[in-house]
Amino acid sequence: MGVIYILICISVFVAAVFLFLFIKSVRGGQYDDSYTPSVRMLFENKAKENKDKTNKHNQSKSN
Amino acid sequence: MKNCFHCGEKVEEKQLVYFDEKTFCCQGCKTVYEIFSANDLKSYYDFEQHPGASPNEATAKFNFLDNQDIVSKLLDFEEGKTSIVRLYIPHIHCSSCIWILEHLNQLNKGIISSQVVFSQKKVTITFDREKTTLKEIVLLLAKIGYEPYISLDNYEQKPRLIDRSLLYRIGVAFFGFGNIMLLSIPEYFNVDDLWMQQYRGFFRYAILLIALPVFFYSGTPYYKSAWRSIKAKSLNIDVPMALGIIVMFVRSLVDIFFQDGQGYLDSMSGLVFFMLSGKLIQQTTFNFLSFERDYKSYFPIAITKLEDSEEVPTQVYDIQEKDKILIRNQELIPVDAILLSEKAYIDYSFVTGEAVPVEKKSGEKIYAGGKQVGRPIQIQAISTVSQSYLTQLWGNEVFQKQVDQKHQTISDKASQIFTPVLITLALVGFVVWSFTSYTAAFNVFTAVLIVACPCAIALTAPYTWGNAIRILGRKKMYLKNTIVIEQLAKADTVVFDKTGTITANHDEKINYQGESLSSDEINHIKNLVRGSNHPLSRRLYLNLPDNIINSPDFFEEIAGQGIVGQFDGNTYKIGSATLVDAPEKIITNKTSVHISVNDKYKGYYEITNHYRKGLSALFLTLKSKGYQLFVVSGDNEGERNQLEKLLPENTKMLFNQKPEDKLNFIKKLQSQGKNVLMIGDGLNDAGALAQSNVGISISEDVNVFTPASDAILDAGKFGQIDLFLHYAKKSMKTIRLSYVLALTYNVVGLSFALTNQLSPLFAAIIMPVSTVTIIGFVTLMTHYYARKTFKKKLIKKSEPDKCHILSKTSKLSLGKVFRSWV
Lengths: 63, 822
Prior knowledge:
The complex is a heterodimer of chains A (63) and B (822).
Chain A: H1 3-27, H2 36-62
Chain B: E1 2-3, E2 10-11, E3 17-19, E4 22-24, H1 27-38, H2 44-47, H3 68-74, E5 75-79, E6 82-88, H4 95-101, E7 111-117, E8 122-128, H5 134-143, H6 152-156, H7 165-189, H8 194-218, H9 220-231, H10 238-259, H11 265-282, E9 302-307, E10 310-315, E11 324-327, E12 337-339, E13 343-347, H12 349-352, E14 358-361, E15 365-366, E16 371-372, E17 377-381, H13 389-392, H14 403-406, H15 410-434, H16 438-451, H17 455-474, E18 477-479, H18 483-490, E19 493-497, H19 498-502, E20 503-514, H20 519-530, H21 535-543, E21 554-558, E22 562-567, E23 570-575, H22 577-580, E24 592-597, E25 600-611, H23 615-624, E26 628-632, H24 640-646, E27 652-654, H25 659-671, E28 676-680, H26 686-691, E29 694-699, E30 711-714, H27 721-754, H28 760-798, H29 802-819
Parallel strand pairs in B: 19-26, 19-28, 26-27, 28-29, 29-30
Antiparallel strand pairs in B: 1-2, 3-4, 5-6, 6-8, 7-8, 9-10, 9-11, 11-17, 12-15, 12-17, 13-14, 13-16, 18-30, 20-25, 21-22, 22-23, 23-24, 24-25
């Protein structure tokens, strides 16, 4: 049953990794503004889509 | 009627501007559209319908950005070529705004990147100093309808560091709580196992190791706060909390090292975690609002100084006595001064609450805080900014106090009783058990402090208030912090400011009294006032019905008197009573414009402030609920009679109150033992708002122009003030009910502790169970009361409203006047 030492060490270590990641993300400012990124995320796609659309549009025109 | 494609403004068909198969309300909106379409930024219009604002003329306004000293004060960061600036843009309101502001680099190549923080309505712009300047960027923003708001406040404010320590502490506490819980379970259920006996030591030391950062890092705010409180010879709620945490830790150490027990470290980390989460819940703030504004937020950062007829942008603090200053249309006058130009119309609405601009003549004194309406004027400063009449108000001591120090919260008061009782109980337990054995006595003593640790009590208020502040926020009542709720519930006296608070600033009515006018006559009057720049003429012009534009045969504006004009051989006189020879009995002290045709007196237009909807109903309800009501106003007594008709009897009204008078009036009420709620809107109320127990400032547009206060209320919700007060009271009731629940848990726990039967497992169960039920209970209750309270609003609306009827009748009389016209 000595393996219990290793197992518990691993489990605590994994938890500590998550704690570290959490602290890192807080420090990086991820929790400072919780609204804007959710909107921003949608933009890039939409802008590209529009470009695709206009491209297709132009293509169909040239065709 | 069509909507402008850019800003959504409704426009008459004939005034529309057509471009690119789209309709616009003005050239400005069209230009913005042109800029966007030329730069491949048309997606702006995809996210929201009509997201834009029509741009303002802002050519000379930002000239101060040529001054390098001012610019470097505004920048957040400056190194090499790169500069970073953060600008507050009130218009930010939708996803289109975010999109366009984050694509600024397509409009100006010097901009490297820009990022919006929506909740604060701020954009951070990084730009290349060699390719562009701050002025160019600001002008670009103004040109596309996103004019930044730059005030004196920006000049002094240092970029604030964000305090993220609470999140770190919660992270650590949660890590400890979770892991300790897991590691504790084997011992809870395998007490006498052979396996357990072998590994017991390992589990206990591992738990202790994990608990160390929770105790020494996450819990520190409580020790500090408790220590401060003890030093101040009071017992706030953090005292029993800190005591509980420390006792748990010490007892656990003793158990682990000397008594062959497992200790209460899981309960301790759980407690710290829950308490910190309560702090987080309570921290809800409305980032886009500012509750701390003083005059600096309204004053310009720089002003145009005239040096030998040369215009020099100067920082306002650098203005000395005798300096000559140029004030343009809509610019604010930052210092007390003497008028040099022939005449000026100063709009003091923000300072005094007086709605109509005041006419000033050359040589007259102008106080700081007014805005010039009309042509640019020259003034000569007679004091510096800090010595001006208006700014001196902020020297008053009420502005130095911190709100947190002003009030003691309900949980602190509970702690005053709870803590001594708890310690007495623990000591009694110790003494009684010391007859049996000292070990048992120590165990009972610590167990009492552990189990009675007022976790549930301490969490009740933060969670109730945290919920309430969010619910109120959704109803457009924004509180500065959670303490305000308790103060709202306690208020027994309500003091209203008049102009801007119980009347709406931008929604005035004109009312004609006298012999009725023909449609031709009304048409001519409108055409005459069109040519005049006098504020009253502008008001009249805006409020008269649409007409056909004609030029008068003769037009003359007599300064300080009015207008004389001719149409089709008829002579019109429009203006003061003396100009038109008004009969004496007609002359009132209300704001009015008199009319005569061919020297025959016709009547006058009365420009009245429009009272807010629901005013009478609100006063009646408040009165019936036992609140004492007052109206204080900086205005003259002109509207006293009208108000007396509207408001319940015995409502005391005070007129001609200066800002200090208002402050002292509140102070006087407080010295009589009243809890005063002040409701105001302007800078002139700032002193009273700060002095009162709760100051609510009312605002048509919550993003700009509210003086420092405890709460900001959207003007449209004015009629619901009684509901907000009612809800605050219900929140306090929720807290008291929850205390009863928490005490029940405590009594159960204490009965175990005093009989020396408190096992770590029992503590580990009762602590989270009580906490979770309390949180659930208050969350349910706050939402239940919110529903019940704000449902009433629907019934109330259908009730006849005195004020509403009155405004209807005035509409009717107006209709009578214009009937022939329509």
